[in-house]
Design a protein that fits this description.
The protein has about 375 residues and is of the alpha/beta class. It is built from 13 helices and 17 strands.
Length: about 375
């Protein structure tokens, strides 16, 4: 399996378009993947209504470059995502992708009509209800961002597909997958179902790391990083495996990708991945604070241990604007807010999914210090 690395210094449309075209040419060229009149769906990363310069969401220049390249073959293009708590259009207007959709006359999908998909090789869950218009296409082009993630360690091509599940419905899955080990299995059960739906159809991932995110990603808790790189592949898992190396992080902590490799959903053996284009360079990303490897994650299956060993969300009242986004997304409803008050957390019921930090527009939610017992057992 091939993964293409292309260095790209800035969001100049001509430059980005040429780098993406070169990347796709390394994979056989876009005309070999898309036929005239094929229906193409572009899966964005629209986590929330964040400015395009923060490195959190799909950059409008990358989107425009992809649309222009696809239009050379077919006009049948749609795009969209399922933001966690905000309306899709509102979110896209904030990050600049809405203007691109209007300029290019590309249809934004309706995410509220659902369809069930099934994974015949599931481990925990065989069935998922996802946005129908993301599925009924001939080709998918996945446009993730290159980011670290407080729960998942990294988020790139495979994790971006969690956006097939409608907005607040993601919360229900966090409740079912209430520790990192189970969450990794669920993400892979979902990916297996999506793979089954797109069997024998092109699945292109173009990961934007021109401005990436490091530290306490995937949202405002992270720091923008000028990684100046684009990664492209027909295998999301192989792309994510190479992404870990580009970020200079620890593959043993990238549990979603590791599980995908163990299941045979994609290639995670670097010796079997053909890296082409530019040289693989370590970009020295800051990893999420107190990230754990797969062995230590197993301890956290037991709820009392999570409370005794792990950090919990804390709220900075100097930054908090009392918008209530954190309480709306909180899967176990343990983050609560009273009228006129700041949100507060019922710590013992917290599942440490960090959804509250993901959606906070003010970066007002951070991790507490790890308890002493956690420092001893999880060091």
């Amino acid at each position: 399996m091939k993964v293409v690395i292309k260095n790209c210094n800035e969001y100049d449309l001509d430059l980005v378009k040429s780098k993406i075209k070169e990347s796709l040419d390394e994979l056989g060229g876009l005309p070999s993947l898309i036929k005239p009149n094929d229906k193409v769906f572009i899966k964005l990363n629209c986590l929330g209504p964040f400015n395009q310069d923060l490195g959190i969401t799909t950059h409008p220049v990358v989107l425009k470059a992809v649309i222009e390249l696809v239009k050379e073959i077919t006009p049948n293009i749609s795009l969209g995502d399922n933001p966690a708590v905000r309306d899709q259009i509102q979110t896209m207007k904030k990050n600049g992708t809405y203007d691109v959709a209007v300029e290019e006359n590309v249809r934004i999908i309706d995410t509220k009509e659902f369809k069930k998909i099934y994974n015949p090789t599931y481990k925990l869950y065989s069935e998922f209800e996802v946005s129908k218009e993301m599925l009924d296409n001939d080709v998918i082009i996945n446009l993730p961002k290159l980011k670290t993630h407080s729960l998942a360690y990294i988020t790139a091509a495979e994790k971006n597909l969690f956006g097939f599940i409608y907005g607040l419905n993601k919360s229900a899955w966090h409740v079912k997958a209430n520790n990192p080990s189970i969450f990794g299995q669920v993400i892979n059960d979902l990916y297996g179902a999506i793979k089954e739906n797109y069997k024998d159809k092109p699945f292109i991932s173009i990961c934007d790391g021109i401005i990436a995110l490091e530290g306490e990603g995937p949202s405002t808790g992270g720091k923008a990083k000028d990684a100046k790189v684009l990664l492209t592949s027909l295998d999301p898992v192989s792309l994510d495996r190479v992404a870990v190396e580009v970020m200079g992080l620890d593959f043993n902590k990238s549990y979603i990708t590791k599980i995908a490799g163990e299941r045979g959903y994609g290639e995670t053996d670097l010796s079997k991945i053909e890296i082409v284009g530019d040289k693989l360079e370590n970009k020295h990303f800051l990893e999420p604070h107190n990230a754990l490897d797969n062995g230590k994650l197993a301890i956290l299956k037991f709820k009392p241990l999570r409370n005794a060993l792990l950090e919990h969300p804390t709220i900075d009242h100097n930054k908090c604007i009392r918008c209530g986004e954190c309480t709306r997304i909180c899967p176990p409803k343990t983050m609560v807010i009273e009228k006129g008050e700041y949100p507060h957390l019922k710590t013992l019921k917290c599942i440490r999914c960090w959804c509250c930090a993901e959606v906070c527009p003010q970066n007002a939610i951070s991790k507490s210090k790890r308890p002493v017992l956690g420092k001893i057992l999880l060091k």
